[in-house]
Amino acid sequence: MYAIVEDGSRQYRAEVGATFVIDYREIAMGATLELTKVLLLQSGTDTQIGRPLVEGAKIITEVVEFPKTKTITQKFRRRKNSRRLKGHTQPYVRVKVKHILKAGESVPV
Questions:
Q1: Which residues, including other chains, have CB under 8 Å from residue 11's CB and lie 6 or more apart?
Q2: Exposure winner among 5, 87, 97, 100, fewest CB in 10 A?
Q3: What are phi and psi of 7, to 5 degrees?
Q4: How far apart are CA 61 and CA 100, in angstroms?
Q5: Longest dimension (CA), the chain
Q6: CA Rg, the chain, in Å?
Q7: What is the pTM for the complete model shown?
Q8: Cα dihedral across residues 4, 69, 90, 25: positive or negative
Q9: Residues forming beta bridges with residue 82, ordered by sequence position
């Protein structure tokens, strides 16, 4: 079973047990995050395609870590004694998929 979910204008393939990185948001480590913008839901031979979203479907995830990506931009003009070095660190949230729920289903205990 897998689902295609949208978050932050990007689409991710979510499978139970898989992890993926989404945009940063203020949330605690180990907290549960619910993604409701499910575009496609596939289970065995049954495929539900949303127009634009699959009604009632949701992905239950758990926050695993907060990775960061360091980007460095350097400009250099030869023989002009001109150098510029700028850095930027972009924070993200890595989540692990716990449950993929169809419409009307609840989280199993």
A1: 4, 5, 39
A2: 87
A3: -150, 125
A4: 9
A5: 68
A6: 19
A7: 0.83
A8: positive
A9: 77
